[in-house]
# Entry
Amino acid sequence: MRILIVTAGSRGDVAPYTGLGLRLLAAGHEVAVAAHPPFAGLIGGCGLDHRPLPGDPRELIRTRARAASWEEARASMAAFLDRLADGVVAAADGADLVLTAFGPAALSQAAAEAYGIPVIGTYLAPACATREFPLAGATGGGDLGPDGNLAAGRRLLADAGAFQAGAVAGLRARLGLPPATSQPTGADVRPVLHGFSPLVVPRPADWPPRVEVAGYWWPARPRDWRPPAELVDFLEAGPPPVFIGFGSMAPGEGERLGELVTTAVARAGVRAVVQAGWAGLTTAGDDALTVGDDVLMVGDLPHDWLFPRSAAVVHHAGAGTTAAGLRAGVPVVPVPAMADQPFWAARLHRLGVAPRPLPLDALTADSLAAAITTCLTEPALGRRAAELAHAIGAEDGAGAVLAHIGAAHGG
# Structure
C-alpha cells in the first residue's frame, strides 16, 4: 500500500512521523512524508521519501512577528495556507491512504476525497473536545471544570476551522468538490489515532467512537548520524549536564535568552548543553562551540540520544520534545510559550516529573536556576520520571497504527 503522511509545522511536528513511517515501511508499505523543505534531510536521512510542502514555517513565524497589524498577519497566514493546500494535493497524488497531522487535516481530507482514498487522523495532541480537560491551546493549561472544558475545546476547534475556512473552500472549488456541509476541522476526521501515551493523557470517556489513543511514535534516528566528537568529549569530562533548548520558539530572541541561560546555569552551578534552536540561542563567547568548561552549544541532534545522558531537560514543552523527555526518564523544567505547550507543561507537572511551569515570556535567570536546582535536588521528581519512562517504554504506539491499518484496509 502507498501511504502518505502529511504534516506541517516545526521539527517537533515532523520527527515523530519518521518513526511511524519506518514501521510502516518495515511492514511492506511504500511510505512518503509530506513536509516543508527544511525537513527533507531529516526525512530522507531516516530512509523515507520526502514530498515537499510549500513554505517555510520559520519564515511564517518571522513574518507574523513583523506584521504591523492582525489583518496583515492573517493575510500572510491565508496565503501560506493556500500554497500549503495545493502542496497537499500534489503530494497525495497516487497514494492509497493518507495519514494526516491535525494542522493540515482539513486540507488532507479534501485531497483524499478528491482522489477517492481513505484518510486517518494521526494527531500528536488531543483534538476532540471533552469534559475531562480543555484542549491544548484552549487555555493556559488550567482546568475549567467539565462544562468549561467542553466549551473551551469546542470554541478552539471552531476558531481553527474558521481560520482555515477560506483555504479549504478554495481548495474544494479547485478540485471540483461540492462545498463542505459544515465548517471543516481536523476534529471531524474519522478515525483518529493519537500519538501519545494513555499513561500521559488517558482516553476521555466522552470521546466519540473511532477516536483513540495509540501511544507514542518515537522519532527515527538518521541512519548516518553520529554524535559530534566535541559533545562526546564534553559528556565524558564531568557529571551529566542539564539540556536547555526552546525548539522553534522565540525566533530572534537568541541573544536575550542566551544571556539568561548563561546566568541561570552559573547560578545553579551545573554543566549544560544548550541547543540553539530557531531562536538562534547564543551565549557569552560569541559563536564558539564551547563556552568555558561548563557550557556546550549544539545544533539539531536526536533527543533520544542526548536526553538519557542528561541530568534534567529544560524545554518548551512541545508535543515531540515532551515525549522525548518522558522517554528519557529524567526530570523536566517546562518553559511553554504558545499553542499546545501550556497543556503539556501542566501535564508534566501533574504527572510529578516537573516543577511548576515557567512561561517563556516571564522567564528569568533566577526562576530558571531555581527550577533546575529543584529538579536535581528533589528525589521524587527523578523517581517518578524513571517509573513513567519504564511504563511508557512497554507500549507500542506505532504497532497500534499498523494493526488498525491492517484490520481496516487489509494492509
In short: The two ends are 7 Å apart (CA to CA). Confidence is low (pLDDT under 50) at residues 283-291. The longest strand covers residues 30-35. Residues 291 and 310 are 18 Å apart (CA to CA).
